[in-house]
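Retry 2 of 3 after timeout on previous attempt. Resubmitting structure tokens to design endpoint.
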């Protein structure tokens, strides 16, 4: 058998441990040393840790956003206002700290607004009180943003959470099962645009996501299309 992987892991482990900083998160180190291919740097170890835990990253990012709160004077607006950082569609989660008017600058996460410490970590484990001025993302918030904007890429994690059962039909999830938002995002924009920002993020996160079988998804989409048509008609017809 080839010894290529064993040799690569031996070199990577030696490099990682030689540069390991004090108070490096033990959970991240354990994860790194148990990977089929050991990451050779602390930063790669942190990135790998969160990449394999998208649901945890989602919860953490929303908790950090709740700690920051909604900036004073901010409103959920779309890209037609032609302001830097505005989302161009309601399918992109609102992120006030990515907007030029509300950004907190280097050393603070552009997603949740909290300070970013060494290695993209969200807590000051090293106790020096100095955010990393070269960073504008938490490692966890990177994964959370990917989870919010492309949930289908995390189908496996969502299936495991549901114990591989379709919540609409109660049947076992098939290979063709698809990710769906329980409340469609067009309704979020129409009905919840005044909801405080940290709470809004749950509509893009795990609380509003489900995996359903393709047949059930098609039926749900048909119902949502009919609902949108009825709503447009109601808005177009003036009251007598």
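Retry 2 succeeded. Sequence:
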């Amino acid at each position: 058998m080839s010894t290529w992987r064993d040799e690569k892991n031996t070199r990577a482990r030696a490099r990682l441990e030689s540069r390991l900083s004090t108070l490096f998160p033990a959970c991240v180190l354990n994860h790194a040393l148990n990977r089929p291919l050991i990451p050779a740097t602390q930063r790669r170890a942190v990135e790998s840790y969160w990449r394999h835990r998208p649901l945890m990253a989602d919860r953490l990012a929303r908790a950090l956003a709740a700690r920051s709160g909604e900036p004073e004077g901010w409103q959920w607006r779309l890209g037609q206002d032609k302001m830097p950082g505005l989302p161009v569609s309601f399918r992109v989660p609102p992120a006030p700290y990515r907007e030029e008017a509300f950004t907190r600058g280097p050393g603070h996460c552009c997603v949740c607004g909290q300070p970013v410490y060494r290695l993209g970590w969200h807590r000051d484990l090293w106790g020096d009180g100095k955010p990393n001025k070269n960073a504008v993302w938490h490692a966890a918030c990177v994964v959370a943003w990917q989870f919010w904007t492309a949930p289908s890429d995390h189908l496996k994690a969502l299936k495991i959470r549901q114990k591989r059962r379709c919540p609409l039909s109660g049947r076992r999830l098939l290979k063709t099962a698809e990710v769906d938002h329980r409340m469609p995002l067009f309704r979020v924009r129409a009905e919840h645009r005044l909801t405080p920002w940290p709470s809004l993020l749950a509509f893009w996160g795990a609380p509003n996501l489900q995996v359903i079988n393709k047949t059930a998804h098609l039926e749900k989409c048909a119902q949502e299309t009919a609902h949108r048509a009825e709503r447009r008609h109601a808005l177009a017809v003036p009251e007598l």
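Attempt log closed. The first helix runs from residue 4 to 18.
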